[in-house]
Specification:
Structural class of chain C: mainly alpha
Strand content of chain A: under 5%
Number of helices of chain A: 2
Radius of gyration of chain C: 18 Å
Distance between the termini of chain C: 25 Å
Number of domains of chain A: 1
Strand content of chain C: under 5%
Mean pLDDT of chain C: 91
Low-confidence stretches of chain A: none
Helix content of chain A: over 70%
Shape of chain C: globular
Oligomer: heterotrimer
Chains: A mainly alpha, B mainly alpha, C mainly alpha
Helix content of chain C: over 70%
Number of helices of chain C: 8
Largest sheet of chain C: none
Radius of gyration of chain A: 20 Å
Largest sheet of chain A: none
Chain lengths: ~55, ~250, ~220
């Protein structure tokens, strides 16, 4: 698949909104989800430390 | 042969999971990179749908994963109810949000694919409708666990619900297909995808494997967090390097 | 006590309790009537449109009315400790549960079947279609009680259980709704309802075999 230039790539033959709306949300979700898990993990660790002290 | 039962205690599973997580993240990144490359640079433009069809490289793998995760949850539920292990409940609980996420992504990408192709943000197509119901099953599972205070009881109730659910999913899918064929008549189905070029199949498969590796990584992370939350007052947790060094 | 006697004992007890509070029977019935009255008010009185939506509308109303009644299935017995006595008793719990589910159906489901002709006339359904509708409800409402019992047992003692039961049980109800309403629509369209009825019957047999057992397991989980 040959893209002639970057703007063609982003336009996706007119379907840019839909294609990037899909891939974009997917990427966002797969970054947000592990971040949220990390946050939850830090909260858990903090709570254990509060109990110990 | 690995002694599986050795790892059925949270105290032994925790460090094992800790070692596995980076492996699966690496796998997910690699497979994802290859999958995206195939999606955008190898798979050709479709004759009928132009570039818009590339959404299937997310839509189909997400659907597959949402169903696969539900089955894995049922598997852990069966183990948990049979052997009464704490870990099974934790794994099921750890998998649910990710499964729900994939179900949601499947619906979202389905809408974004349907709108330019068939003119509507939503169609009552058999597969999309079944996916919606699967999403409700995930939400129901998480709601049930949130509503029960005792964690072990919540685990067991959730396990029974997943087993009842997994038995019902084929029945639901069949009934929705039946309903769809009787009512739809001649309208277009979202599932009549363009004839699959081999590259397209490879793209979907690679992305599906990437999602699978991602799921394992996130689920293990979440499972470890659940262990910390639940077993906070045990010896082995309090002696964990992560807990001690962060102090 | 032989198994059948235990079943009838549980059935009889629940019916007796309901008879002492007859308003509960009528609540499910009136809910069904109210919902089916609201629909034309919301959609418009054209007979053609009403005839078209009637099977689905009445089925959904029956579904909602059954969901309302599910709360009663175990909550009262759980509150006063009778449920624990049942779990501890020598009678097989699944038999007692089956008796309670039957009582629930007799109170919440069967009245809907009997009221269907009246509502069907409100929607201007032809008489033979009403007959098919009644039959579909007759086979379908026990299904709703059986599946609903699993949800009721799982949410026993959980917070917000009234709405939670609906959320859990709705996906399970979908095949019943599709085949039940579909039977009537299919008949009206001239395609015959036998396929739908076979499937509905098959689901009922499956549910009758497995739901009491699943409900029992859920009760044991909820009561520990």
């Amino acid at each position: 698949m040959q893209w002639n230039n970057a703007s063609e790539f982003f336009a996706m033959g007119g379907y840019g909104f839909y294609v990037w709306g899909s891939f974009g949300l997917c990427a966002l979700a797969m970054i947000a989800e592990p971040l949220l898990v990390c946050q939850r993990r830090n909260r858990a660790i903090k709570q254990i430390q509060n109990q110990l002290n | 042969m690995i002694n599986w039962f050795k790892y059925s205690a949270p105290s032994t599973f925790y460090p094992l999971a800790g070692k596995l997580i980076p492996v699966f993240w690496t796998l997910a990144a690699l497979l994802g990179a290859i999958g995206l490359y195939i999606s955008f640079f190898v798979a050709p433009t479709d004759a009928q749908q132009g570039e818009g069809y590339r959404i299937i490289f997310i839509h189909v793998p997400a659907s597959w994963m949402s169903m696969f995760i539900y089955c894995i949850m049922a598997f852990w539920s069966l183990l948990g109810l049979t052997f009464n292990t704490r870990l099974s409940g934790m794994m099921t609980r750890a998998l649910a949000p990710t499964g729900a996420l994939f179900a949601f992504l499947s619906l979202w990408t389905g809408a974004l694919w349907g709108k330019p192709m068939w003119g509507a943000w939503w169609v009552w197509d058999a597969r999309l409708t079944s996916e919606l119901i699967l999403f409700f099953l995930y939400i129901g599972f998480m709601a049930l666990q949130a509503a029960i205070d005792d964690p072990r009881r919540a685990d067991r109730a959730g396990a029974l619900l997943s087993l009842v659910g997994v038995v019902n999913v084929p029945i639901i899918y069949f009934s929705v297909k039946w309903w769809n064929t009787l009512h739809q008549g001649a309208s277009v189905s979202l599932t009549k995808s363009p004839s699959m070029a081999t590259t397209m199949l490879w793209g979907m498969l690679t992305m599906a494997l990437a999602f699978w590796a991602y799921t394992i990584a996130v689920a293990l992370m979440r499972a470890r967090t659940i262990m910390l939350e639940r077993e906070g007052n045990t010896e082995w947790v309090q002696h964990l390097p992560d807990v001690k060094e962060a102090a | 006590m032989p198994v059948l006697a235990a079943y009838f004992a549980a059935l009889q007890r629940d019916l007796l309790l309901v008879m002492r509070r007859k308003t509960e029977v009528l609540t499910a019935l009136f809910f069904f009537v109210i919902v089916t009255t609201l629909l034309p008010l919301g959609i418009g009185p054209e007979p053609d449109l009403l005839r078209k939506i009637a099977p689905g509308a009445m089925w959904i109303a029956a579904l909602l009315a059954t969901l309302l009644g599910l709360q009663r299935l175990f909550a009262a017995d759980h509150a006063d400790g009778t449920l624990e006595q049942m779990v501890l008793s020598p009678e097989p719990l699944s038999v007692l549960v089956a008796g309670k589910i039957t009582a629930h159906w007799l109170v919440c489901g069967l009245p809907l079947v009997l009221l269907a002709p009246v509502i069907g006339l409100q929607f201007d359904l032809p008489a033979d279609a009403i007959g098919i509708l009644m039959l579909s409800l007759l086979i379908g409402t026990p299904l709703l009680s059986l599946l609903g019992a699993i949800g009721a047992a799982l949410t026993l003692g959980a917070r917000g259980s009234a709405l939670l039961v609906s959320l859990l049980v709705m996906p399970l109800y979908i095949p019943t709704l599709i085949f039940g309403a579909g039977a009537v629509e299919s008949y009206i369209a001239g395609l015959g309802a036998s396929g739908h009825f076979s499937l509905l019957g098959a689901l009922l047999i499956l549910a009758a075999a497995f739901a009491p057992w699943a409900t029992t397991a859920a009760l044991r989980i909820s009561l520990e």
